[in-house]
Design a protein that fits this description.
CATH superfamily of the largest domain: Glycogen Phosphorylase B
Structural class: alpha/beta
Strand content: 5-15%
Number of domains: 2
Number of strands: 14
Distance between the termini: 41 Å
Largest sheet: 8 strands, mixed
Number of helices: 14
CATH class of the largest domain: Alpha Beta
Length: 455
């Protein structure tokens, strides 16, 4: 694998000299795809996992993938290692690492959270300009198409819409907002949410870079209907709902016969995510306190860390469930799957999310999911494998979540049926299935079939 030194002056090129030749029937299907994956790391979750998931899945379909990304933590080393582990298949993945520029100094002069938001927008816009220049200098304008997968937000747009080949933009979110009616669960953080809604959703989606991307894209893939409505207000480009996340086939657990409850095993609810206000882990703790009035030995396991952990621990003790809430901190993905296998139900309480990697992983382990009925999780809720709790009145929301949990935990047969439905749903969202769907879309675009036929 060819390497150059990583520095501020230029990108690190991890691309091999030549891709593996594809012969036979695969050759007729091979495309050269420029994959814009600002975040790309096979060992991490969320957007880094999504970036890598697309790269590997498309390579497995026989395509050559030119990945444009940036270095973060040890993503370069992890990506290089994974490419090497793939052997000949890895030669179809050409990774081009472009450093992220620094934010202009003026962004540090802005007050409060505006400074961080402005710095992020400016850094990402500058990185995209560098990525476009790099793509042009390396002849990527002769690729078959460009697929932009991260940032997974419509507000960032894609400078690669100017490269020349048709652009597939997304899956992206960015149109969803935290409900004002439930601001009590966000506390003082709601002011920042309100600022985000005004600046990020209302204003940045109207800037020229975003509008140009939407106008030039062959199709916009959106992760939730809130974002789809936003895109349709801004352009007439064809849209299609698609879950941003994917799961490896090998991670989907085989269905098992219903088993009697394990002796000595208390009913366990699992919550996974960053302990951040918009994820609303407070709802999980309050729901457990309500649940224990029906299931006295129920317990809650929280995986993740963040600024809310001290206040959550205090809340659990104040509600009398301190001994029943276990905070395990941030764990490797392997241990997250182990926790899924040990749990009886998965709870998602986020008040603002494009979609959810954690819920797809829970479904892949056959775990019933209880979630709030809004945003992307509601648009991609597993039929028969989940319970959607309407937002309704915020005052009794913890009680209604507890009732939903109780209905699942108290009935072994219900859990068994939900397990099978969850596994079936996860199989529809493997990376192999997503790549096959994307390939059909690419063909429709390249052969001038109307992408709106996919709506």
């Amino acid at each position: 694998m060819r390497r150059t030194t990583l520095n501020e002056a230029g990108p690190l090129d991890l691309a091999p000299a030549t891709p593996e030749p594809v012969t036979g029937s695969s050759a007729s299907r091979q495309l050269r795809i420029v994959l814009v994956a600002f975040a790309c790391d096979p060992t991490r979750g969320s957007e880094p996992a999504i970036g890598w998931g697309w790269a590997e899945a498309l390579a497995r379909r026989g395509h050559t993938v030119e990945v444009l990304t940036h270095p973060e933590f040890d993503s370069v080393r992890q990506t290089e290692r994974r490419v090497a582990d793939l052997g000949p298949l890895g030669e179809r993945i050409r990774v081009h690492v472009i450093p992220e520029p620094r934010a202009p100094r003026w962004t540090s002069l802005l007050p409060g959270p505006l400074s961080g938001m402005a710095a992020e927008v400016q850094r990402y816009a500058a990185w995209q300009r560098q990525a476009l220049a790099y793509a042009r200098s390396h002849g990527f304008d002769r690729a078959d198409l460009v697929h932009h997968v991260s940032y997974g937000s419509l507000q960032g747009g894609s400078a690669l819409c100017h490269l020349g080949p048709p652009l597939v933009f997304g899956p992206v979110g960015g149109g969803q907002i935290a409900p004002h009616s439930h601001r009590r669960y966000l506390g003082t953080a709601y002011r920042q949410e309100a600022l985000r809604t005004w600046l990020w959703v209302r204003c940045l989606s109207r800037r020229q870079a975003c509008r140009t991307t939407l106008r030039e894209a062959a199709v916009v893939l959106v992760t939730n209907r809130d974002t789809e409505r936003r895109v349709r207000r801004l352009s007439r480009t064809a849209t299609r709902l698609m879950l941003a996340d994917g799961i490896q086939e090998s991670l989907i657990r085989e269905p098992t016969q219903a088993q009697p409850a394990r002796s000595g095993h208390p009913p366990t609810v699992l919550w996974v995510g960053r302990l951040h206000p918009r994820k609303t882990p407070e709802l999980a703790v309050r729901a457990l306190a309500q649940l224990r009035s029906e299931i006295a030995d129920a317990r809650l396991v929280i995986l993740g860390d963040g600024p809310l952990r001290p206040s959550l621990e205090q809340l659990a003790h104040r509600l009398g469930v301190g001994e029943s809430v276990e905070f395990r901190g941030l764990l490797p993905r392997e241990q997250v799957f182990e926790a899924c296998d040990e749990a009886d139900a998965f709870l998602m309480t986020s008040l603002r999310d494009s979609s959810s990697t954690q819920t797809l992983e829970a479904w892949a382990r056959g775990l019933p999911v209880i979630h709030l009925g809004h945003h992307g999780i509601s648009d991609f809720s597993a039929p028969g494998g989940s319970v959607s709790v309407p937002l309704g009145d915020p005052a009794d929301l913890p009680q209604r979540i507890a009732w939903a949990l109780s209905g699942v935990l108290n009935d072994q047969q219900t859990r068994h049926c939900m397990e099978r439905a969850a596994l079936a749903w996860a199989r529809k969202h493997t990376w192999a299935a997503k790549a096959e769907t994307a390939e059909e879309l690419y063909r429709a675009i390249l052969f001038e079939r109307r992408p709106c036929s996919f709506q």
